[in-house]
């Protein structure tokens, strides 16, 4: 299991510590390190949800609430709940939500994605952007997302993947492995956070391997769509 820090302790608590440490720099670094392409990825994920017009949405590993805010602006649902284990990230998210006047639509809660504090079949849709890779127990987290979905509900996951095309694969790996950690270390003051990003992407069961896990969990009609030459993938599934 890949953990943020080379020390004893559960991955879950280390992930929380890491995101609390980098929270003040998180949004800036996302824009910088993805060259702004992350906006496009989120828009495409939200367009997938628009087809089913969900009214009650759960955003798992919501972070600073970028996806929740974009969904509120685009989909106009009755309610979005975002959940995350890093309170410092949530605090920044709440400030952004208040600034945009979305308090009535979006609620952020601190909580464990692998033990969601919601009744079974509570949500029309569940989303997760770059969060399932950080689960301590991937299948357990997916089972919880399945549980809280209503019958025929839709799940949309955005997650990093690994390009396959030469020479983009080699360029991407060099960027992620060497340059990105240097930028992250100088900017966020956490020497491990962005090295962990590279390592966790390498270890994540992407593409058809992840589809297989979704099927095992019970999800149906699972689809994977690579974006930006395979840097990121959208997974769409149904209960």
Low-confidence stretches: none
CATH class: Alpha Beta
User: What's the gyration radius in Å?
Assistant: 17 Å
Order of helices and strands: HHEHEHEEHEHHHEE
Strand order of the largest sheet: 3-2-1-4-5-7-6
User: Got a strand count?
Assistant: 7
Q: Portion of residues in helices?
A: 40-55%
Task: Say which CATH homologous superfamily is assigned.
Answer: Vaccinia Virus protein VP39
Number of domains: 1
Main pleated-sheet profile: 7 strands, mixed
**CATH topology type:** Rossmann fold
Strand percent estimate: 15-25%
What structural category arises from helix and sheet content? alpha/beta
Please give the count of helices.
Answer: 8
Mean pLDDT, rounded to whole units?
A: 92
Keywords for this entry:
single chain, 239 residues, alpha/beta, Rossmann fold, seven-stranded mixed β-sheet, 8 helices, 7 strands, 48% helix, 21% strand
What would a concise description of this structure say?
This protein has 239 residues and is α/β, with parallel strands linked by helices.
Description:
With 239 residues, the chain is α/β, with parallel strands linked by helices. The protein has one domain (11-163, 204-238): Vaccinia Virus protein VP39 (Rossmann fold, 3-Layer(aba) Sandwich). The protein contains 8 helices and 7 strands, in the order H-H-E-H-E-H-E-E-H-E-H-H-H-E-E. It has a 7-stranded mixed β-sheet, sandwiched between helices. Helix 3 links the parallel strand 1 (56-60) and strand 2. Helix 1 (11-33) crosses helix 4 (87-99), helix 1 crosses helix 6 (168-188) and helix 6 runs antiparallel to helix 7 (193-203). The two termini are 28 Å apart.
């Amino acid at each position: 299991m890949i953990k943020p820090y080379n020390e004893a302790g559960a991955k879950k608590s280390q992930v929380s510590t890491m995101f609390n440490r980098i929270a003040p720099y998180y949004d800036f670094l996302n824009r910088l390190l993805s060259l702004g392409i992350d906006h496009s990825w989120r828009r495409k994920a939200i367009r997938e949800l628009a087809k089913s017009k969900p009214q009650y949405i759960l955003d798992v590993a919501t972070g600073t609430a970028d996806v929740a805010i974009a969904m509120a602006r685009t989909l106009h649902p009755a309610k979005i709940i975002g959940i995350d284990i890093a309170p410092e990230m949530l605090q920044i998210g709440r400030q952004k939500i208040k600034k945009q006047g979305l308090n009535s639509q979006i609620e952020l809660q601190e909580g464990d994605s692998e033990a969601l504090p919601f009744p079974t079949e509570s949500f029309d849709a569940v989303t997760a952007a770059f969060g399932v890779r950080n689960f301590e127990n991937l299948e357990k987290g997916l089972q919880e997302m399945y549980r809280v979905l209503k019958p025929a509900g839709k799940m949309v996951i955005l997650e990093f993947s690994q390009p396959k095309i030469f020479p983009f694969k080699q360029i991407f790996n060099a960027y992620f492995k060497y340059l990105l950690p240097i930028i992250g270390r100088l900017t966020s003051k956490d020497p491990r956070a962005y090295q962990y990003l590279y390592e966790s992407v390498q270890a994540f069961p992407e593409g058809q391997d992840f589809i297989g896990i979704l099927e095992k969990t019970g999800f149906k009609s699972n689809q994977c769509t690579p974006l930006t030459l395979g840097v990121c993938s959208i997974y769409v599934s149904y209960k």
